[in-house]
Design brief:
The structure holds two protein chains of two kinds. Helix content of chain A is about 30%, strand content about 35%. Chain A has helices at about 5-20, 65-75, 85-105; strands at about 25-30, 30-35, 40, 45-50, 55-60, 110-115, 115-120, 125, 135-140, 145-155. The relative contact order of chain A is 0.31. By secondary structure, chain B is α/β, with parallel strands linked by helices. Chain B is about 40% helix and about 20% strand. Classes of the chains: A alpha+beta, B alpha/beta. The interface of A and B includes residues 73, 95, 102 and 115 of A.
Chain lengths: ~160, ~140
């Protein structure tokens, strides 16, 4: 997979997180390439990408991190993973992915995204189509926990 | 999208007849409905209702349109998306002022929405001050 597709996601993560949680400090960890299957951390929001590039993006984190992020975005504490937590994490993924796809579209691509879908549970295995090959995973470290942005796309253009 | 509900300068006041500006929120994300509702209430808006998709919005607006001044309308939704619902909402009541909301800054969709009669387009995540300026501009237009 072309790593240049990762940069818009990194820009968008920084923009969106600073907008929705202004007090947050974020630091990017080292990029990692991995073939499927991958084990998710406990809460994974998946968004499909279609158009000139095709595949999916997964925003993966532990449930504890999801509760903390959703709490910070809503201005209230969550102790249980409920509908509002899931809606908040899906919307965070939607805004990050939307921002990244907007950057790519402004640079000549023609792309769209699907509505986010959230999966929860321990040790869920994620299998991609062999067509998309390796996924690129970027850990984002925050005081609320680690968020893993997992991108697997192929170029159709 | 940090919502401060105690900013005096960001208050829309009342209409000429003394009523609040009333809003209707259409979004499939419960988080976004809650966030937009808190923000609009902070601006001094009344909330006439909410809907989670275009079909529900059309049905509810048919009943409530005389109590609504502005609609925030998400573009990507199940069943009927925002761009499909927009002309139906304006057919019910051409007086309604619709502000489109999307996570994707898609220029073609912005143009399409404006051509269909939307008054403005907001890309998420949005700043409270920017949304206030847009709503004030839209209701004064």
């Amino acid at each position: 997979m072309n790593v240049e597709y990762i940069n818009p996601f990194l820009v968008s993560i920084s923009n969106v997180l600073k907008e929705v949680i202004p007090s947050i400090d974020i630091a990017r960890g080292p990029l990692e390439k991995r073939l499927t299957p991958m084990i998710t951390k406990g809460c994974a929001s998946l968004i499909g990408v279609t158009g000139d590039i095709e595949g999916r993006v997964v925003f993966d984190m532990t449930k504890e991190t999801a509760l903390k992020i959703a709490g910070a975005m809503n201005g209230e504490e969550f102790t249980m993973f409920d509908f509002m937590v899931s809606s908040t994490i899906n919307e965070l993924a939607n805004m990050i992915c939307g921002g990244a796809i907007t950057i790519l579209n402004n640079n000549g691509k023609n792309l769209d995204i699907s509505a986010p879908t959230i999966f929860t549970g321990q040790d869920l295995e994620l299998y991609d189509s062999s067509l998309v090959g390796e996924a690129v995973i970027v850990p984002i470290n925050t005081a609320l926990g680690q968020l893993f942005v997992n991108v697997a796309v192929r170029d159709n253009s | 999208m940090v919502i401060n509900t105690d900013i005096e300068k960001m208050h829309l006041g009342t209409k000429d007849n003394g009523d609040l500006v009333n809003a209707f929120i259409v979004d499939d994300s419960a988080f976004m409905v809650k966030t937009i509702q808190r923000m609009l209430e902070g601006f001094g808006c009344g909330i006439a209702g909410t809907a989670a998709d275009g079909d529900e919005a059309v049905k509810k607006v048919q009943q409530l349109h005389d109590k609504i001044d502005i609609i925030t309308l998400d573009i990507s939704m199940p069943k009927k998306d925002g761009l499909s619902a927009l002309p139906e909402l304006l057919k019910i009541d051409p007086r309604l002022k619709v502000i489109m909301v999307s996570a994707l800054g898609d220029k073609d969709k912005v143009k399409q929405a404006i051509m269909l009669g939307a008054k403005h387009f907001v890309v998420k995540p949005f700043k409270q001050e920017k949304v206030f300026d847009i709503i004030r501009w839209v209701i004064e237009k």
